[in-house]
Task: inverse folding
């Protein structure tokens, strides 16, 4: 009571509810919006930040989400997980690809490039952002130790970052 709560606009591309519970537990007031919500409607809410959710499938056909994110980048802080990470990668100019087997389970080792510590992560996805196609103003922050794929990235100048895994450790359907 009495402390400021952060207003978060959560773009729902098929998210699980556990991540929303986690955001509320750390002091966020969350407004859930469909993934096809126009950028201006999101900005009209004047959120402190925008969360781009996980969800199923190939990110490339979700052109409406990619276009919306392009319009939002630089206007508000943005954080994405899983599919949200892939959509942000596409919006920033990178490419995605289908993994041969996908990453499944609660024991995926990921190297945090900044701390050089290994994080054991929970994952459930079949696509990845191609690290070789990241623009020069975007850097890799996390790398999968099983196959070397990109697991996290951040923009060097703007408040945009994302991870491929499920930081709340609840990747199941």
Result:
């Amino acid at each position: 009571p009495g402390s400021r709560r952060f207003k978060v606009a959560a773009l729902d591309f098929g998210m699980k509810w556990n991540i929303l519970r986690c955001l509320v537990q750390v002091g966020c007031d969350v407004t859930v919006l469909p993934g096809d919500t126009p950028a201006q409607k999101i900005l009209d809410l004047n959120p402190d930040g925008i969360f781009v959710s996980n969800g199923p499938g190939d990110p490339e056909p979700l052109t409406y989400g990619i276009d919306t994110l392009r319009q939002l980048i630089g206007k508000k802080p943005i954080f994405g997980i899983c599919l949200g990470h892939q959509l942000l990668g596409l919006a920033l100019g990178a490419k995605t690809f289908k993994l041969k087997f996908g990453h499944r389970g609660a024991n995926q080792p990921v190297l945090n490039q900044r701390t050089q510590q290994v994080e054991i992560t929970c994952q459930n996805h079949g696509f990845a952002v191609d690290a070789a196609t990241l623009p020069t103003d975007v850097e890799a922050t996390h790398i999968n130790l099983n196959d070397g794929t990109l697991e996290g990235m951040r923009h060097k100048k703007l408040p945009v970052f994302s991870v491929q895994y499920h930081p709340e450790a609840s990747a199941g359907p």
The two ends are 34 Å apart (CA to CA).
